[in-house]
């Protein structure tokens, strides 16, 4: 702290920190060893125990006994009426026809690549086939299958479904494990987990002892964890010749994976889908041009006397003219194809954002008025877009009777009640319209979709290695993704797909999306490589399916060295080892660890939870001023969005205690849902920290300094560094600069935006995003001394150590 940490004490702090971190680490490992044999929910320990017990011969015999019992139970279920019905359904899936071929390939080859249309029964059926065949044969030891999913939500949903198909409760033969949650019993043979969980298991169990099959699902998505896992598994396979690896993918880029694993056999499950007719922009415009005439009819409303009608007519006329000009633009752009060759260049000529919602509306109206019944699935870029279009459509006059239209949103953070509606068939005569992100491409299947509208873009994080800045921009999807979107229309009958871009733009799409490994910062990944003792980071990553750029790797290593997680020789420091045990980004982990060390854990956990969920401060478009001043009330002129968040959260907790949480949120423009998410994440953090031995079971002490805002500010600085910009107060404005980008701006909802003066020479920030200019999201002002002591490698005395040799 500014007051109690004068320079002379640095050496002592340094020694203290080092001792603290290493002692905690030793304690944690000691306790995990001494706990073997007792029951625990802890995942790492659980696995260790399991392995130890599994070694014994007695255990083997018991296992076999139990799997026979399981098999008998399963047969009894299949003979029951519900079981019969389920079995019938399972046998109707396209994968059933390939069952024997799949099992044969798996038993004869160490690696098999399986592809098949979404919904054909890869995820739910294939693991069950293995389970059933192994138990049937009862050939020695029972099998143990791990099936990874890229998303938490799918790991949970799929395990539930498979358990239901087997007439069991979760935790019998089927279980799941996601971060901080899971369900597993002594007879669990099939485990659905996130890819991250399997990676963490590899940390304590390098050779996956006891596991007979690893299934890596949704491999076509090319997530970072999946690519990482494949490198590790590829190295593991020769050491575990009896281990089977099955890669499953929806689209047909099986060759890439097959050749990565030395020509592994590829099996395709031919799925039955109905033909889908594809329209590109040029066709859509021709087909729907007459709709413009409909808009002309609306002009008649203008003659109405009523003020309300006139107002509506005005709004519609405005919309009509924007559609008309959009159509003109689009036609003009479509003509571009005459002289634009099929290169990336043609993509930049075509800008759908200028057409945006209007075109989607236009096509939706066409479908609702003119087409046969059937649900409509609209692929959009992000959930904010989805929400605004939903609002806009809610009372759209051209969509007709609102009670005949069921408008739904589908994205990662939707409520579960809404989720169910998406799958349900609506009443006759009601048109279901689902506005979705690319989540509806492969992870979920809506059976009654007949029409698909594809905007052609998806929001994805990309990473600009040159100036080390992540960007979040809607970018063009790949041909594979466009094909996948189109396929969603032909599940129950022939369908139609409207691609809202010209054909020539489609032709210029990349075949497949760029893998995540090539477009995101690699810090967490590098830390994991080190903690798994996989050798040199660059060498390891060069063995990836598609290795990342050396510059990105270098940036990540440098970052980890700056924050003190790696030393000059790329060895893991004590801090680094502790960070690798926390499943959060390194900078957030560092903040948590320091919050624990400096006994101000509560507010620091709130900040970290807020940074990992999303901003709870709502900024409704039409009440921006009110919302901004509501937020400003929480800032108490201390120039910190993070401290404002802490106050808002604390106030909410207080209000909750008096049963007025909802009112509090409403008054202060806060999202109760987000605050609840922050609340639950905080509990998880505390669990993690205790688990890692960084916080005592008795947590009283770790909040001794929680009221001290200087200290909290310092810990925030330590975590966010080197996310740093300098503040220059000018006469009327403030200039902000970072080293890499030069001039940067603040998002308007920051408490530091628009203030006449910031009395701190520096702002630390969590995130900068390149849109047109570079924008900083949340920021906190820090002083020189805090920056010197807490910036950089704090266990060596922060930045000061660079100044004082
Ligand atoms: O993995 P893949 O996309 O090939 O298909 P799946 O997830 O195994 O689903 C196979 C079929 O099971 C789907 O077509 C759905 O009809 C059904 N299913 C379901 O009814 N409920 C679920 N939660 C998951 C699948
Ligand atoms: Mg699947």
């Amino acid at each position: 702290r500014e007051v109690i940490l004068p320079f002379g004490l640095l050496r002592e702090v340094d020694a203290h920190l080092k001792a603290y971190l290493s002692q905690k680490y030793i304690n944690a490992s000691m306790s995990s060893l001494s706990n073997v044999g007792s029951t625990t929910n802890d995942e790492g320990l659980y696995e260790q125990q399991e392995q130890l017990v599994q070694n014994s011969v007695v255990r083997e015999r018991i296992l076999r006994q139990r799997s026979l019992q399981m098999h008998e139970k399963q047969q009894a279920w299949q003979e029951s009426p519900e079981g019969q019905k389920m079995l019938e359904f399972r046998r109707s899936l396209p994968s059933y026809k390939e069952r024997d071929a799949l099992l044969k390939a798996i038993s004869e080859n160490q690696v098999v690549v399986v592809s098949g249309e979404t919904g054909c029964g890869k995820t739910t059926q294939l693991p069950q086939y293995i389970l059933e065949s192994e138990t049937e044969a009862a050939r020695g030891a029972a099998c143990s299958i791990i099936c990874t999913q890229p998303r938490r939500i799918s790991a949970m949903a799929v395990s539930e479904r498979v358990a239901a198909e087997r007439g069991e409760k979760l935790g019998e033969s089927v279980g799941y494990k996601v971060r901080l949650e899971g369900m597993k019993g002594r007879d669990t043979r099939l485990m659905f987990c996130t890819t991250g969980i399997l990676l963490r298991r590899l940390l304590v169990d390098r050779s996956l002892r006891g596991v007979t099959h690893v299934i890596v699902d949704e491999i076509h998505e090319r997530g970072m964890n999946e690519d990482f896992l494949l490198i590790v598994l590829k190295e593991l396979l020769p050491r575990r010749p009896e281990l089977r690896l099955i890669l499953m993918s929806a689209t047909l880029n099986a060759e890439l994976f097959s050749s990565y694993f030395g020509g592994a056999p590829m099996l395709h499950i031919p799925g039955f889908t109905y033909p889908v007719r594809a329209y590109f922009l040029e066709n859509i415009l021709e087909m729907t041009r007459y709709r413009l005439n409909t808009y002309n009819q609306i002009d008649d409303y203008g003659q109405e006397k009523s003020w309300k009608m006139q107002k509506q007519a005005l709004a519609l006329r405005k919309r009509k003219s924007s559609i008309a000009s959009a159509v003109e633009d689009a036609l003009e752009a479509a003509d571009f194809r005459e002289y634009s060759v099929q290169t990336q260049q043609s993509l930049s000529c075509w800008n759908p954002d200028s057409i945006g919602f209007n075109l989607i509306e236009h096509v939706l109206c066409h479908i609702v008025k003119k087409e046969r019944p059937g649900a409509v699935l609209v692929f959009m870029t992000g959930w904010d877009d989805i929400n605004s279009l939903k609002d806009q459509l809610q009372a759209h006059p051209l969509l007709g009777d609102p009670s005949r239209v069921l408008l739904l949103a589908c994205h990662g953070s939707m409520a579960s009640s809404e989720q169910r509606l998406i799958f349900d068939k609506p009443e006759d005569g009601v048109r279901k319209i689902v506005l979705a992100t690319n989540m509806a491409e492969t992870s979920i299947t809506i059976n009654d979709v007949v029409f698909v509208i594809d905007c052609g873009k998806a929001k994805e994080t990309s990473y600009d290695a040159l100036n080390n800045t992540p960007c979040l921009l809607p970018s063009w999807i790949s041909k594979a993704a466009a094909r996948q979107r189109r396929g969603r229309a032909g599940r129950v009958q022939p369908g139609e797909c409207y691609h809202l871009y010209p054909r020539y733009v489609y032709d210029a799409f990349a075949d497949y999306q760029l893998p995540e490994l090539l477009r995101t910062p690699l810090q967490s990944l590098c830390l994991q490589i080190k903690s798994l003792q996989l050798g040199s980071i660059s060498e390891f990553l060069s063995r990836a399916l598609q290795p990342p750029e050396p510059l990105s790797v270098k940036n990540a290593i440098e970052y980890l060295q700056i924050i003190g997680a790696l030393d000059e020789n790329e060895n893991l420091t004590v801090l680094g080892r502790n960070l690798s045990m926390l499943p959060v980004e390194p900078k957030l982990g560092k903040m948590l660890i320091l919050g624990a060390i400096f006994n101000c854990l509560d507010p620091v956990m709130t900040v970290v939870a807020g940074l990992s969920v999303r901003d709870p401060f709502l900024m409704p478009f039409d009440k921006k001023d009110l919302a901004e001043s509501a937020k400003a009330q929480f800032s108490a002129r201390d120039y910190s969005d993070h401290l404002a968040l802490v106050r808002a959260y604390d106030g909410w907790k207080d209000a909750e205690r008096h049963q007025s949480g909802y009112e509090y949120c409403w008054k202060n423009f806060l999202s109760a849902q987000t605050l609840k998410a922050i609340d639950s994440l905080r509990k998880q953090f505390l669990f993690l920290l205790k688990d890692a031995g960084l916080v005592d079971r008795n947590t009283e002490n770790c909040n001794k300094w929680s009221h001290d805002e200087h200290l909290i500010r310092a810990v925030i600085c330590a975590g966010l560094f080197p996310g740093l910009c300098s503040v220059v107060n000018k006469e009327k404005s403030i200039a902000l600069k970072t080293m890499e980008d030069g001039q940067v701006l603040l998002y308007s909802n920051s408490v530091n935006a628009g203030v006449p003066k910031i009395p701190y020479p520096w702002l630390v920030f969590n995130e900068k995003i390149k849109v047109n200019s570079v924008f900083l999201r949340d920021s906190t002002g820090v002083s020189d001394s805090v920056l010197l002591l807490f910036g950089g490698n704090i266990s060596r005395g922060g930045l000061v150590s660079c100044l004082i040799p």
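Residues 1-10, 25-41, 290-306, 333-355 have pLDDT under 50 and may be disordered. Residues 122-123, 217 surround magnesium ion (ligand 2) (CB under 6 Å).
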